[in-house]
Amino acid sequence: MAVERKTNGIWIASLFWLVCLLAALVGASLRNYDLASLLPLAGLAAIPAATSLILSPVIRREWAQIIVIFLWLALAVVACLVFGFIPMALLFLCAPAMAALFEREKVVEAMILAGLTAAGLFYFAQRGEFGDISLTDGNQIKWGVKTGIASTIALLIGALYAVSSSRSQTVASSVSSDVLDAVPGGLLRVGKNNRVKMITDVAAAQLKLGEETKGLSAKDIFADPDKRDEFMFVINKARETNRKVSRKFRLLENGDYISAEITAGPLKGGDVLVHIYDSTQHENRVNSLHQAYSAAQRDADSRSLFFAGVSHELRTPLNAIIGFSDMMRSRLFGPLPSKYAEYADLIHDSGQHMLDLIGDVLDLSKVEAGKYDLVYQSFDAADVIRSSAKMLRPAADSAEIRMDVEVHDKSGELLVDADRKALRQIILNLVSNAIKFTPKGGRVLIRGDFEGNHLRLGVVDNGAGMSDEELEHVGKPYVQSESGVASETRGTGLGLSLVKSLAELHDGRLELSSQKGIGTTAEVLIPRRRVS
Q: How far apart are CA 34 and CA 36, in angstroms?
């Protein structure tokens, strides 16, 4: 952008000078001056301005700026020698005026050079070192002096206008540059003729473009035909749909390929703003997460299959142990000494406990492996609640715990569409947990009712309870609360985890609330009707 402003300034000032020369020639022609004698003077005076125009495309080069400044100084020297130091010394202002269109430092340098050149010229001219080379033709002198002064004033006006315009644009551009530099990635603006109107340094580096980017065709940005076609498709698609369009590109950076996301957004007037973002790190993080997830999934599947296999293999010998212990307890083959009868009871109870735990492990493994299939049927959940309570009442009586059942539906029925076996397992696990953690003389309440379109199953106890911190972890596989660890009846910590999984398979949820020393309330909500 800075180069464009310099070029525009050179053109403005130079054209002001040349137009003034042309106007002077036209005026001389109207006054019947001899144009043949004036044209060489006009041609000599036009050399610095014409050279400035020719060098304008490369005016940012140091050598080009030096040539322009010295040509204007040379013109001032020749004018002073031909027309007289006074008033032609005014032309020495042309060099600093042109330098003002470059950098600020060049103005100081040009002023010093102009001052030294003018002083030296005056000194040596006074001493007669140059001899008498002034013109004798009065018309030439009159035309040259007036034209020189007028053209110098015109050039100064043009330079001042260009500098003023350049400064206002510089301020606006500096603000825009700050904003653009703060944007992650590179930006370029493509005009409706598919020419690059603006590009940031970051974008130029990403696309491996040189310094000459003004007017570059968007079609020439990529040498690879496939990338070029894809790039132009993104730009044209953004114009057609008036929406942002993104594509992934592979760009070469420091010898390595990077993943870049190029997004084209439409602007007013048919222009398109293109954003180039290096998404390599983001994609690497996403890939790492995918790999970690896949590895964790494989580990979970392997663990579930292992538990399922082991649980299945353990069930056969356990069933045999329980069966033989039943035979011993029933004295099928004759009486047993009291001590052996006690041992048979212990063998049976321990085997049954292990079988229950293995059943939980197997069921949870099926859920985690996605192989636990629900069998939906319409049934009365109140019957399941009451029958489950009957199954566990001996355990409650043995623990000296009062167990009550409350069904709050007016009809006494709780008709639902669900998996009967899964619902029974939910109730048995919740009640077993409550009995295990409720002290003697305590109470366990099993209740069921409808809440909107959901069946609410609740088990309330006044046992040890849990803290908020323990509640956050309860329900995770193989995690027990502090009271569970301290309990004489040890378990795997799978009960609530299995309840939670079975509830979620029904598109329901498990809700837990508890207070230390007061008790725990576990509630399961499942839809009354199957969610398709």
A: 5
